[in-house]
Design a protein that fits this description.
There is one protein chain. The relative contact order is 0.15. This protein has helices at residues 36-44, 81-94, 114-123, 142-159, 175-180, 193-203, 228-245, 250-258, and strands at 5-9, 23-29, 50-55, 71-75, 99-102, 127-135, 171-174, 207-214. Helix 4 (142-159) packs parallel to helix 7 and helix 4 (142-159) packs across helix 8 (250-258). It is globular, with a radius of gyration of 18 Å. It has 274 residues and is an alpha/beta fold. Helix 1 (36-44) links the parallel strand 2 and strand 3. It has one domain: Alpha-Beta Complex (Spore Coat Polysaccharide Biosynthesis Protein SpsA, Chain A), CATH 3.90.550. The N and C termini lie far apart (43 Å).
């Protein structure tokens, strides 16, 4: 089924001059009406080019973003996170992006941490930089922690190197990765896409670099769209097929288990207040 969408541009000038004009922010959002404006305003203080992909929200998010210099791409129906990300990536790349920061719109990531991902990318230009939720992890729901551990093991095996927080949606992708690495992004692959991108990128010589961030789970936040049991099963099925196709990839398992602990990139102290 062909999906339709509208594009809107709000405002004329970004509040941030930005020292990284080639880096864009893409925020996929579905019914994030309560948090989206705050997230976008804070992102705009870091980078001047922000795209919100409204993935068929019940109430168009453009109304909450009125007056902000942000590009809004709207899917008329909910196509899933993967499709929303791919649409935002494509728009940014078409307009000259050299790297893209993916950021969730539900308040679980701090836009203020974006510069730390950019700094890590400067030192590791052929890496997908992951905002790894390692600080205050005990605040995460137990089911989410268990699901993440399982996913990290399987995805690290298939990728052939240790991956920290494979399920974090807070990432910096170099344009080189996005133009050379692809993964299924239909609705059924909504939360599988980001895992498969890590595996496919590794098979083409790209690595991952973790940057420790706080694990934020706001009390008033709406329930996550991520279903630990269902989505981890989908991810595991995808990874199992990739491993079977590669003869179980024993060298990848060895490297993922025996690799050194990733070096912490830049010091980190938990943020207090805003």
């Amino acid at each position: 089924m062909r999906r339709t969408a509208t594009h809107q541009q709000r405002g004329s000038k970004s509040p941030s001059t930005g020292s990284h004009p080639g880096i864009w922010v893409v925020i996929p959002a579905y019914n994030e009406i309560a948090s989206i404006r705050d997230i976008v305003e804070r992102a705009l203080t870091i980078l001047p080019r922000v795209i919100v992909v409204d993935d068929g929200s019940d109430k168009a998010l453009a109304t909450a973003l009125c007056g902000l210099p942000v590009t809004v791409l709207r899917n008329q129906t909910n196509c899933g996170k993967a499709a929303a990300l791919v649409r935002g990536f494509a728009y940014a790349l078409e307009h000259g992006a050299v790297a893209i920061v993916a950021l969730d719109g539900d308040g679980q990531h701090r836009p203020e941490d974006i510069p730390r991902l950019i700094e890590a990318a400067r030192h590791s230009p052929r890496s997908i930089v992951i905002g790894a939720r390692l600080v205050g992890l005990e605040s995460a729901p137990r089911s989410r922690r268990r699901a993440n551990h399982i996913a990290n093991f399987w995805i690290g095996w298939a990728a052939g190197h240790r991956i920290v927080d494979s399920q974090s949606g807070f990432r910096l992708y170099p344009a080189e990765v996005l133009t050379n690495v692809h993964a299924a992004h239909d609705r059924a692959h909504g939360f599988v896409f980001e895992s498969e991108m890590l595996i496919n990128a590794a098979r083409k010589g790209f690595r991952t670099t973790p940057v420790p961030i706080e694990a934020l789970y706001p009390i008033a936040a709406r329930p996550s769209h991520f279903a630990p049991v269902r989505d981890i099963l989908r991810i595991t099925r995808m990874v199992a097929w990739r491993l079977i196709s590669a003869g179980l990839y024993p060298s990848g398992l060895w490297r993922s288990l025996s690799g050194r602990r990733p070096r912490r990139v830049a010091g980190y102290a938990p943020h207090v207040g805003r």
